[in-house]
Amino acid sequence: MLEQRYRWKNKQIREHVSVLDGKLAPTILLKDACYLNQVFRKWVTANIWIYEDRIVYVGDKLPDNMSSCEVVDCAGQYLVPGYIEPHAHPFHLYNPHSLARYASQFGTTTLINDNMMLLLQLEKKKAFSLLRELRNIPTSMYWWCRFDAQTEILDEVDIFSHADVKSWLEHDAVLQGGELTGWPKLLDGDDMMLHWIQETKRMRKKIEGHFPGASEKTLAKMTLFGADCDHEAINGEEIYHRLMQGYMVSLRHSSIRPDLPVLLDEIQTLGIEHYDQFMFNTDGSSASFYEAGIIDNMIRMAIEKGIPVVDAYNMATINVARYYNLEYLHGNIATGRVANINFLENEKNPTPVSVLAKGKWVKRDGNIIDQYNDINWQEHGLDALNIDWDLSPDDLQFSMPFGIQMENSVITKPYSISIDSNYDQISDSHDECFFMLIDREGKWRINTVVKGFAKSLPGLASSYSFTGDIVLIGKDKNEMLRAFNRLKEIGGGIVVSEAQEIVMEIALPLKGVMSDKTVEELIEDEKKLSSYLVERGYKFNDPIYSLLFFTSTHLPYIRVTQQGVYDVMNKMVLFPTIVR
């Protein structure tokens, strides 16, 4: 499905050429700009002409026609291309629009986004209408096409139908297939997934892997299947194996895997001196993690670790653009490119003081200029979660002998339940809580116990989960019910009840999984929730990710899914869901 065949129409290109002929004036002239020239790998001074959203000239000349042209004296500043985030999951409480707006303030003006939530929450027509509207914001928005649900869902064949996957792959805003969280199925003989990979390669698009802990042999197999890149390396040895097998290596620094300092140290210890096969990503971090910046923060870390300055910027710009075959649009400051430009006070401080995104000022001399028009989410099917059913005390019966134990923020293992859960409350003397996953339409439930989430949490209800189904956790069944009822009232979110009162909530009115607040507001909300949960005994890095990944089967070992308690390693349902 081609939404727009070309970036610029013929009439626009004629206008761009007319600027060079002096028939039209540039929109903006960046005069005496010291910019990073990635062809020469050094800082070069030139005049940069911009017409609307495109750079139309870079060189020594000045325009013949200067009428109505904004002239910016760039003396004393360093200009670099807008940064590219190649691995965004734009639904961690924030939404694609709010993340784009926030990221632009830190110089990340291009996002390549996961489409999972759109697949799971919206019909294709509504999803594509949202993609079309997001073309109009200053941030350049691109997308992936998922091939699997990353969990065991009941209607995967319908959601991931061949027709729908093919439509996504054909969309011109989609740059890659993946990430391949379901790659074990591919190894086991899933020919439909292999066909989709083949189609992706036929369209000259990329395949993003997801291969945590994969052996050298497995990495080689996945290269043969068609994988081009992987972001799961957690040490120098894993980076080396990926490079040896021909991968582009995406270096991750995220809220649950803040690995970049170690990766940079070990890259240099290995004697790797060329960085063209590296790029940066933040792997969809929680909002509060982004308080320190986004891709700019990773560039800063690289420079501080002794990576050559030009290479540090290239890993956030031209390397990404070349990999995705977008060099003609993004990743460098040159004639013909989209006018995404960051203005720096110092070449070693990558957080910009001013930002141009598609030729519009979104930040000027440290001040935010909001160019991001609000979106009517309801028009695209992203309305509040409508829960028109009730939970009763009879639903909160916990008799399963088998529970899940948290090893860290996202890894859960099986354990034998030793407590007596046949009471309305369980003791605060241990870190076991009632755990319940309920279909968002109220058709089924699965009840067990989670160990390690909290010691004294009365009742929490969350519609924020990978599938949008509802998670209840707590020590007190009545408080869990109270939190659930409040969740119904606000149309989805994360709610905590204590002492018969709602003590904390984050409303998520976009299908119960995303907020319509700004990222800045969400950072404060998330901090409060995290602090509260830490006080109640949460001891890991990221409770928001924990809530999301209870249902996700792309990590070991035991998950609670729409099909029931699921053994990831053995690919089997241990205890099925109960029909209500």
UniProtKB/TrEMBL annotation:
- Which residue intervals define the domain Amidohydrolase-related in the entry? 78-362
Catalytic activity reported: adenine + H2O + H(+) = hypoxanthine + NH4(+)
Q: Output the Gene3D superfamilies linked to this UniProt entry.
A: Metal-dependent hydrolases, Urease, subunit C, domain 1
What sort of enzyme, by top EC class, is this?
hydrolase
Please state every residue range assigned to the domain named Adenine deaminase C-terminal.
410-570
Q: Which Pfam families match?
A: Adenine_deam_C (PF13382), Amidohydro_1 (PF01979)
> Which InterPro entries does this chain map to?
Adenine_deam_C, Amidohydro-rel, Metal-dep_hydrolase_composite, Metal_Hydrolase
Q: Which GO terms describe its molecular function?
A: adenine deaminase activity
Task: Write out the entry's keywords from A to Z.
Answer: Hydrolase
> What are the EC numbers?
3.5.4.2
Does Hydrolase appear among the keywords? yes
Keyword Hydrolase set for record: yes
Q: Which family does it belong to?
A: Belongs to the metallo-dependent hydrolases superfamily. Adenine deaminase family.
PANTHER family referenced in this protein's UniProt entry, alphabetically? ADENINE DEAMINASE YERA-RELATED (PTHR11113:SF6), N-ACETYLGLUCOSAMINE-6-PHOSPHATE DEACETYLASE (PTHR11113)
Protein name, UniProt field: adenine deaminase
User: Per the UniProt entry, what species is this protein from, by scientific name?
Assistant: Anoxybacillus andreesenii
